[in-house]
């Protein structure tokens, strides 16, 4: 039982370390605080939180496209 807990915890840490750098860069390019990528270290909910923030936030590229479309027509 205790061995499984340690294995799960180590798995979460390794997964977090693999994901934090790319997520840090994605948040920066999305115009968000890159430190939001650190939520990935919260077991089970962290990746969901990070994904939802990225999915439901406005991205600078889409805002630029919207502004350009409004100026054209």
Written description of the protein model:
Keywords: Membrane, Transmembrane, Transmembrane helix. The protein is an all-alpha fold. It has one domain. 70% of the residues lie in helices and 0% in strands. The termini are far apart. 7% of the residues are buried.
Backbone structural class: mainly alpha
Order of helices and strands: HHH
Give the uncertain stretches in residue-range form.
none
Strand content: under 5%
Q: How far is the N terminus from the C terminus?
A: 64 Å
Mean pLDDT: 85
Helix content: 55-70%
Number of domains: 1
Largest sheet: none
| CA radius of gyration | 17 Å
Number of helices: 3
- Overall strand count: 0
The coarse overall form would be rod-shaped
Keywords: Membrane, Transmembrane, Transmembrane helix
Topology (SSEs and partners):
Elements: H1 2-29, H2 46-55, H3 60-72
Give keywords.
mainly alpha; 73 residues; 3 helices; rod-shaped; single chain
In short:
The chain crosses the membrane at residues 6-24, 36-56. The chain has 73 residues and is mainly α.
């Amino acid at each position: 039982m205790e061995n499984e807990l340690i294995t799960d915890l180590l798995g979460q840490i390794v997964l977090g370390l693999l994901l934090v750098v790319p997520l840090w860069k994605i948040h920066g390019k999305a115009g968000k605080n890159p430190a939001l990528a650190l939520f990935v270290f919260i077991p089970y909910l962290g990746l969901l939180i990070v994904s939802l923030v990225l999915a439901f936030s406005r991205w600078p590229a889409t805002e630029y496209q919207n502004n350009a479309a409004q100026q054209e027509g």
